Amino acid sequence: MDQRYSCNSLIGRLLLLLIWTSGYLTLESTTPSVNPHLSSSGWTFSRNQSFVAFSPNLTLEQDQEIMFNFRTRSPNGLLFCHLVEQFNQSVHPLLRNYHFCAELSHGYLQVKYNLNQKSDILELGRALNDDSWHLVDIFLETSSGKLVVSLDDLPSTSLYLRAYTHLDVKTILDWTRLRSMVSFAGLTHAVPIEHHQFIGCLSSLKYRELIEVTWEVSPTIVMQATPGCVDLCQENNPCGEGWCVNLYSSIHCDCFSVGREGDRCQYSNITEITLHGYEWLTYQLYSEQEKTLRDRNRFSLQFKSDRGSGVLLYAVGSIDIGGGVSGQHHSHVIASVHQGTVKASVAFGYDILEQTMGVSVDDNRWHNLTIVHETVKVEFYLDGKRFVHVTTNDLYYLGLDPFIYIGGGKNFVQTLGLQVRQNFVGCLKNVYVNDRSILNDLRSNISTSTLHGNTEVQYGCHRVSNISLTFPRSKSILYLSGYYDSVFNVQFDFRTVRETALLLYLKIQTIDLFGYPAKGFVEVWINKTLPMMKFVRTMYYDSIANVSLLHVNVSNNQWHTLSLQLKDGQVKISVDNLALPSLFIGNGSTIDKSITIGYGFHRNYDDFVGFVGCIRNVIVQKEFLDPINLMERPSSGVSQTGLILDGCKLVNHCLVHQHCQHGGQCLSDWDGVSCDCSSSAYQGKYCQFARYRSSCDSYYQSGWRRSGVYVIDVDGSGPVEPTYVSCQMGIGTEGDYYGQTVVEHNLHIQTQVRGITLPDMRIRLTYREMGFVELQQLTKISSWCEQYIQYNCLNAPLRLSNLTHFKSIDGGVVQYIGKTDPEFTPGCSMGTCNCDNEDLVAQEDGGYNRIKSQLPIGEITVYQYTDFKTPDSKGTLSIGPLKCWGNKDSLSSSSVTFVTEDSFLKLPGWVYGDLEFSFRTHQSSALLLYQSSSNGDWFKVTLEAEDAIKMEMQIKGKVILSETLDANSLVNDGDWHRVTFELSSHEVRCGLDSQRRIVTIPFHNNITFDGLLYLGGKLYSYGSYNNLPGLIGCVKGLVYNGKLRDLTFDVYDDMPNILSGCRRHCSPDPCQNGALCVEKWNNYQCICTNKWAHSGHSCETNINENAVTITGDSTAFFDLRVSSNPLEMEERIIFSFRTQVYKALIFYMYDELNNFIQLEVVEGKKLRFTRNNFQQIFHQDIEVPGIIQPTWKQVVLEPTKIIVDGTVTFLSLSNNKLESSYRIDPFAGEGETVSPPRPAEMLPPFLRMYLGGAPVNVTSLEKYGGCIRGFKIGDRLLDLQEHSKSVEGLKKGCKKGCTKNLCLNGGVCIERWGEGHYECDCSHSNFAGKQCELEASGIFTGQSVVHYNFIPLGEAAKTNKEQFSFIFKTNCTDKTMVLLVILSKNRGDYIIVSLSTSFVRAVWNLQKRLYEEKVKGNFCDGTAHKFIYKREGEEMWMKAADIHSVDRSDWRRKFITNTLLEDMDTMLVGGLIPGVLSDMESQYKDPNKTGNFTGCISEVTYVPVNERTFVVQPMKELRDLKNGSITVHGPDVPQCSPVDYHDPLLTSEPTTSVPTTSVHSTLGVTMPPWDIRGPDIYVIGIGNNFTTPGPTTTTSSTTTSTTEMVTTVMYHPTTEQEPANVTLLLGQITAATVSSMTILIVSCVVTLMCLIAILIAVIMRKKRKRYVTYDVRKKYIDDFEMKEPLNHNMETYSPTSPPPKKDIHIATWDEFSMVSATLGPNKKKQNGITPGKVHTLPADLRNTEYPVQTTFLPEDGVKHPVYNRKKNRPASSISEVLEEMERQQKAKELGLDPEQFEDPKSHGEGELEWDPLVDRTPLTLGIHHDTIYETQDEDSDSKSRATSSESEDPLKVLDQQEDLLQEYNGDSGYEAESQRNGDDDLDLGESLTPPTPDSSKLYYDITGVPESPKCTSTPYRLIIESEEQFV
Predict the structure, then answer these.
(1) What is the pLDDT at residue 1598?
(2) Mean pLDDT of 1898-1914
(3) Cα(256)–Cα(430) distance, rounded to whole angstroms?
(4) I want to staple 1670 with a disulfide (CB 3.0 to 4.6 A). Which of 429, 875, 1417, 1708 is the partner?
(5) For residue 1695, which phi and psi values (nearest 5 degrees)?
(6) What pTM was estimated for this model as a whole?
(7) How far is CA 1137 from CA 347, 1101, 1132, 1266, in A?
(8) Alpha-carbon distance 1350 to 1013, whole Å?
(9) pLDDT score recorded for residue 1711
(10) Ramachandran region of residue 1682, left (φ > 0), alpha (ψ -120 to 50) or beta?
(11) What Cα–Cα distance (Å) separates residue 687 from each residue in 50, 500, 676, 984?
């Protein structure tokens, strides 16, 4: 440190000492301002419940005055209180309560007077808790009620008490009969007045008892008060060099400026801390109750940093000024480093004092900042330099919020004086707020000082580096833009525990394989803990290159380094310096503006794939990104979402908290866990809510109305998994509608179960996608279930409970068909069963079983009838699917009706569990449910609008839930609507029909209510809800507290407005003609949908029923004498019409004076209304959209307006005047269009009308064609049907020809009125035919060409704005194929489009100039592609792409000359024809290079001009067959469909086809495939002529109900065409009738084959060689794996190794080779390892030339294999082990080195060297096994067995035997001698019983032989008892 800095520091210390001694100390320790001797004459109160009190003697007329002095540091405390002691209420009936008190509140004086709830408060003074003496004088004048208060030398304040104004105080407070007490500083526990204990000193306590006499109080009660004002600092200074602060109950040491700290300033080591930019400190200045104004404050700290900006101090606040002044007082103290300087600011309301200090304070040196506030003066100090400011505000107090921020903070409020928002980065020490050392308190764990942003404080001053960015949630993003480089580098460190996350995303601009610009993106993923890179082109989402790095686990909560480099079109990444080869992504690849860290764009990523963890040291293009600047002052192009700075406190919460349920994947977030439920059928924070409904009915009641495949979860959030079912919606039962769940099974229809050749059988059904638990739960929750059973017979009795037994899925016996009563007596629906008559005619028994507890049928047992009368006798069984519907918890039988809005039910309260109910109403607002509680908590459900409900909950006085659910449809439509409220830990799921919303709440399982549950009505006792009406409607299915409540039991006779059941008058709907029925629940009201046409109480009158059809013929119109009253012309006219004519006269009505009104259709889009106004004619046109569509248009004509389909048009001629005199030519020159005959003389009054036209001599307007109905004038309906009888061309009724979907594929239906005929206009589509059903397409085989000649008209003859397009699909050939030719026969111009394997080519010949353009791509993949061409002048565009992406593909643009195409009159589709083009390119003339098209072409459209006034569609003309100008050269061109036009929603689900394709429109669910093989059928008896099948079936003994032993044969059918899986099971037995001769022949053949087989077996047995069998005891079965050395590294086979024991290793000689030689090849291994075992390669064999498969290690861990010296490799068989041991033994006997000895004679080259008769020394290997495996001699008749010396689990033995099945590879002499015939079988199927040693076996003991190649042990002889040689 330089000398200058030391000098400044010394000066700073001296100045601070001066500040303290001369200013702050004086202010904080001011001596008493009144009577200095009071310190010895008062009282000190230092504890809770400390006070002094006395009882005054008061009179009725006596005034009250009390005086005292006080000093304290506490902002709140009771000074005195006058109270009435206990009194008798009967003696003083008018007195309720009284107190007269003074207290400190937030630092100002408050005097309160309260009598019988009449209260007054007087406030004055500020900051009185400054530890100075203050004098208080309070005077109450009892005659007037005037209260006067004086404080210190301030002017007194007074007010008149309301109690004296409104009450008779003298009567109420009769002091002659009441005892009172005055208490100072506190109160006893018995006094129910809320107050704060006073801590400090009181003195000069005076009280006026008599008039003008005041005396000093002598307390009669003293409770824990100390006489005198005790100053604990006056004795020896306990603070050393510091300053002592008296707290009355204790002291505090202020160590400011003395260079020490500690609670007694005893430490010289000053605490320093380092802040990293994401940390900050808070100091709690006071508790919320102690908030006060202060006029003396001090803030000081020392800081050190190399950062130019950062917040040092932030303290803001506002407070009520008090002291009788209203309003909020804003203040702040703020200091920060800003651009190397210190900026400080102190605010007193509007007056802000600011100071900028220092230069280059970011020099990484210590600097001292101090701010001292003393009343109006503020002093700023920086490194000893002083700056003084004085405020001009009289309110010079600071009212700060409780918490002061030091070093930064979070979410700062925008405040004047706050120059920066970055957190401070650097070191702090000597941080003081007033007299508190913040860092010392922090180190001492005092709660008022807290570190935020980190869990651990870094003490000491350290350089800050490696600040990390935290990504706390998925979708936290760091976005960097502005990069367009072709050479790009990005590098950063990352740390995470997420196993799958998107780490980095880069947008790429590149060049594709065809040379076109393309876009894409590079992604770097963490995929199952391993890094992975992807490159995806934007247009081809399947073009993904995946590159996984080496096995680097990057999800281990450790830091890893990722580096990515783009260069020369290649991307290379490395993690922790482990790199992959570069990935080529395209030439010219560059970054496309942006990179994103932590997430990505342009793809639909799952919510949980975002990166969660930390990133640090981000370097982009060699530029380091500073995390703090990035977060707080991001530069251009840098943005972030959701990132935080917290020091990377990453914890894998999934290791601690496993909250995810139902298979949800636990994902560790920053402050807990979240669960990825995407792969499960559940949702919610912990996957706790079932995603799917419990049944089809639940879907139906929630608004799903379409039948199809759904996923249901029968037990909701229980353990049962969801399943697929078929739903039939809208099943009606008992007046309501439900969703029906249909579950199929695998018993086919008409399965034959009885016949003369069939056995007794048991059939077990399997239900589709459902097991026992699911089926049981489905029937349990449903209201109704049924299953149809049908038995068809011909002389095959049913005999239920005797020959036929049904069982339900849970084992219950079902002895009936079609009975629904609970009596379980056997029988059918009619009592007896038809088939039991045994008649020789076909009969049937069937019916629905509907007892839920006995559904569905799971098993059928069928015994054959023993007395069939004919070979054709048979019985077939059909069982329908299980069908269940309704919800037992939501039955209408348990519903109630609320008739009036003030009716409701009181029910027991909701205590636990979920809550749900259904309601129906026509209201738009109502209180549906209210749950009360005695503590004020509540829960309510209200109907907020016609389509919404609201759920609200208040817990512990706080509204924790307020959620509005909007339904997809109206909820006041009178239908049932379901409300659900599901509770779980910290979340609830609110539901209304299909809408469900999960909401997080602060409380979870402790939500309890102890009040009543109000259902359906409003609460009179809770006024806040009286404005909300109760429900008028029905409620059912109220489920809460874990069960359904039957509401009908809560309705009593004294409740006239609540009825049992749901009393609907609108069901069935009494309203007619589509009227809306409004439920009145005791009545109904019909609202007619068409008030003009419908009338009556039930809208039963419909004038539209009177309809006629006008065919449009010349005579087809009405000529009606309407009335003799012409005034009816001015009445309302109503009628409806529909037509498709563009212009026609609808009606013309006139009277005898030639007044008229006229209505006609004009221009195909308007109605024209015409009438006369005197001699003038008035017109008005009205636009009517769709007027010529074949739909009804209703017209209401009134004198001033016309209403068409509800749209009102007012007539501009509102004051019309009629002609009053007759004229022959009244409208001369007015353009009259209808001129009826006008005689010379006026006729008598009349009103006449032409309807639908007029005579040809009357008008030239076209006749009307269409329908007219409901013509009404005034109140009179014209009976048009009656009038039409006499007129030809008029027909009764109106038959519509254009019904729904008659014209397909966009065709327009044209009505042909009269008989309901129609035509389809297909001109606007690419289809043809009567119904536009023929696709304009064709299949071309390379030999056909469609030739179309046309005449271009108008602008089409010469154009430079042509366009054409077509769709094609092909697999291409080796030649160029011509797709389309457009040419001019006269001029020779042409356009040719051809296709090669890699591009589409277009060639233009315009006035002998050739132009060419290509679109590259793979168009030969057999999928549909579209080619589009268009030109405008000199610019031509074209593109070709897949039909589904052509709209997104890019155009190819080319400039050509602006040449007109003239007389283009010919089109060739599919190829060329000879002689058409003479001057085309040579390649098109060469048949070896070019050929005609092979494939499908459709939608060929040529438009010469843009306006589409002329369109050429040759393929459509071909299908229409209307144009003779089209020719097909070559074979016919049949239709094809290159594009799928079918609607997948219309595809129905086949009942048995697999897989199913039914898709529901809402859920998009497809039923999973089901291999319907038929049920399992067990043969349980021989029936009549049944022979038990041979050994191909598996037999086992079972016991029937009669306990007899029967044979069971089980099979699994394979195809659904085999109902009778019996054919597969029984071989000769079929479902069809088989003759006796056939059975006899088959039996003879089978017998003969058996005899031949026996004879062959006997012959082979005689020739078999008999072997000596030895039993060898063996421990490790894996030694039988012949490809492995026996003595090698092995892992123990069993999970726990058996204890070592001395035993004999015994094995038979034949076993050595036969075990592997006879059991066939080894099990398939993966990577050389047997599946299911854990293997390791021995260390000493890993690098040798003999890599062997390892098996299990012995307990001793010996690793040396037995070495075959002869073959120079490890031994691979037991035989080689014995051979090696024999060689070593012989060498030892000869005294030779076993390593050098070579045996001249090996096994296999002569006789067996071990003579069993002489050498009886068994060989022992030292490794043993408990089990003895024996290979039986083939001459033995006994079965092979396995034995164990100990009791052993048979399943374990079986597993061990399966391990014996290894591949044989023996090659030693021992193997040659003992090798079995390869055709012999070794049957281990019965080898599960341990045998005992057989005396006929010769055994060798090989125990104890060492396993090292250097064998030093000698095999010893061991005579085993009962040994016997077998020769």
Answers:
(1) 34
(2) 41
(3) 8
(4) 1708
(5) -55, -35
(6) 0.53
(7) 80, 19, 16, 7
(8) 82
(9) 39
(10) alpha
(11) 57, 19, 8, 11
Say whether pLDDT at 324 is over 80.
no
Contact 1076, 1070 (CB under 8 A): no
Q: Judge whether residue 1860 has pLDDT over 90.
A: no
Which tokens in the block code for residue 598?
């932590």
Contact 589, 569 (CB under 8 A): yes
| CB distance 231 to 244 below 8 Å | no
Q: Output b/e per residue, 186-222; b: 16+ Cβ within 10 A.
A: bbeeeeeeebbbbbbbbbbbebbeeeeeeeebebeee
| Helix H or strand E encompassing 1735 | none
Mean pLDDT computed over every residue of the chain:
78
Q: Which residues of 1374-1408 are buried (b: 16+ CB within 10 A; e: fewer)?
A: ebbbbbbbbbbeebebbbbbbbbeebbbbbbbbee
- pLDDT value of residue 431: 96
Rg (CA), the chain: 52
Helices (H), 78-202: 162-166, 169-172
Is the pLDDT at 1547 greater than 90, yes or no? no
Residue 236 above 60 pLDDT? yes
Give the count of alpha carbons within 13 A of 98, CB side only. Answer: 23
Which of 1346, 133, 1583 has its CA nearest to residue 755? Answer: 1583
Spatial separation of the C-alpha atoms in residues 805 and 859, rounded to whole Å: 8
- At residue 1540, the pLDDT reads 52
Bridge pairing between strands 251-254 and 425-433: unpaired
| Measured distance CA(184)–CA(205) in Å, rounded | 9
Strands 1376-1383 and 1490-1492: parallel
More confident residue, 459 or 1727: 459
- Check residue 364 and give its pLDDT: 92
Q: Which residues pair with 723 in a beta bridge?
A: 712
CA distance 857 to 804: 13
Query: Helices 1709-1718 and 1774-1789, interaxial angle, to 10°?
Result: 150
Closest CA to 753 of 567, 660, 919, 879: 879
Contact 311, 405 (CB under 8 A): yes
Backbone angles phi, psi at 463, to 5 degrees: -70, 135
Distance (Å, whole) CA 1776 – CA 1795: 16
In whole angstroms, what is the distance from residue 1814 CA to residue 1809 CA? 11
Q: CA 853, 858, 859 angle in degrees (round to 5)? A: 120
Give the pLDDT confidence of 453-503 residue by residue, as tens digits: 887 899 999 988 888 899 988 888 999 988 888 899 999 999 999 989 999
pLDDT in tens, 1651-1684: 888 888 888 776 664 443 334 333 333 333 333 3
Task: Respond yes or no on whether the N-terminal peptide bond of residue 1068 is cis (omega within 30° of 0).
Answer: yes
Contact 1070, 1085 (CB under 8 A): no
Burial (CB count <10 Å: 0-12, 13-18, 19+), residue 1134: buried
Residues 6+ apart with CB under 8 A from 26: none
How far from 1850 is each of 1598, 1706, 1885, CA to CA, in Å?
A: 22, 21, 12
DSSP H helices, 44-144, are: none
> At which residue do the structure tokens 């001057």 appear?
1479
Percent of the chain as helix, strand, coil, to the nearest 5:
10, 35, 50
DSSP string, 1012-1036: PEEESS--TT-GGGTTS-B--EEEE
Q: How many CA atoms lie within 13 A of 689 on its CB side?
A: 22
Q: What are phi and psi of 1386, to 5 degrees?
A: -85, -40
